[in-house]
Give the backbone structure.
Amino acid sequence: MYVHIGHTVTPNGGVMSDTVLAHVPALQWSLADVHTFLTTQPTGLAVVTTAQGRPCGIADCTTIAHAREFGHVELDDALHLWPLPRRHHPPIIIANQWRVRSTDTGDYVASPPLPQPCTHIAWDDIAALIDPRTVVVLRSLTALATIHAVQVFLVGGAARSVFDRRPIHDIDLAITGPLPAFVNAVAATLHGQVEHHAPLGTASVIFAEAQHIQYGLSRLDFVPTRREVYPTPGVLPSVHPSDIITDVGRRDITVNAIAITLVPDGDCAVYDPYAGRRALRRRQVQVLHPLSFCDDPTRVLRIARLASRLDLHVGKRVVRMMQQSSLYPAFAHVSPQRWYQEILKTLAEADPWPAIQRMQRWRLWAAIHPAFAHTRPQLASIRHVAVADRFAVLVWGAKPELLQALIAQWHLVPQLLRQLIALKGILAQPRSDSAISVGALTVACKPFASSLLTSIALIDPSVRQPIARVLHARDHADTPMITGHDLRALGIAAGPIMRDILTALEIALYAGILIAPTAAQQIAWVRAHYPDQCTDT
């Protein structure tokens, strides 16, 4: 068990076992305070010092034994020790310096939290980036917040966009105070529908089409300001109420660790304890602590798409942390549903290829599942593919056995994956260029939507020609076919022979042998080719 303590215990953050945390009655200690406590209490932990004897962190004896220089504990050491059996609590590190090369110092891990409050920004500067209809909604929210004694903060991507001067479309709000009563009041005032989401205690207000048009929003998402405790790396955390400073400290990267109070027509306080605005100006990705990707491995996908969308630089040390984290059990602890949702969000980008390419370059697709590791340069055209077909396109390069493994292990979208396996088998069969062969291929591809076939042809040149023939045949053979009822009227018995006759008729239609035939012409074709089966005369 371990818990983020951020700036609440040490000046710059780290992680601490919950056993030790239970011994800390006041969560505003400096590093010197913690040092004094640990040297006077039987906690089983020791103080780590630099070569000059200055306290720089705390670790248990097992971790200290693995430190390589100056008593500093490396990320490698922490990850190596994580999966080992523990009789008590795992060896966890609290440190205000991690061993890094001098040229990398400060480029990949957030600096110690800055004094608060930071600065202010005028309400008008925020409102200028938001739809005027939505500004009216935010005014109503702040009025309700006063009544219900809660504080409302603009957080996440919305707060980041304020300082990047980008239009704000999605409103992310953090609430300090009684969230359920406030959200219910918001829904009643704005005529929305409340959805509460366990176990993280978040909530949403969903608007019908009329309210969507009126407010310029389809939904409002609310999260309580909270501290997170990860019982096991990679699983969803347990949450506890906290203040806004602790809340931003649980986030993935510094540019997302910004919060702004909402004060209509006034000065809005800006909380930026990890210098996220500076990282944004430098177009730089900084994680808040070195074990970030063990806590939540899905952050690798979020960083890939955010860095691609905002043109942020991801340094070698951050990439190395992601790669190291992928070698340990945390990635396996993430549920398939969470991976799938993050992948869908990545594929929903206007152009997902840069994020896909980053994941490929970082060698992280295979850590999620080997079926995703077979991306190809042709995926650069994925932006032209309908969003609904992008997941199929992403895994198209995987071998059938990997798709079968994905079905067995993830239990998600099995129908789509089985369709892809079947389509691979159909397109792999050798065929001639004859009209009958094209007709048979078109019939075999009948279960697959034209949009899916078009998308696959776009990114896979090896199947482009046969798929083009199928689509051409479909476009030129849209005549309604006769049915089994018509064949029974000819005296043809129900069963395999009826199915075979309908298939043969369909092949003739797609092959152009029958061109826009009427029902009578189709019946005549059946009589001519299956005289022994027609017993009506």
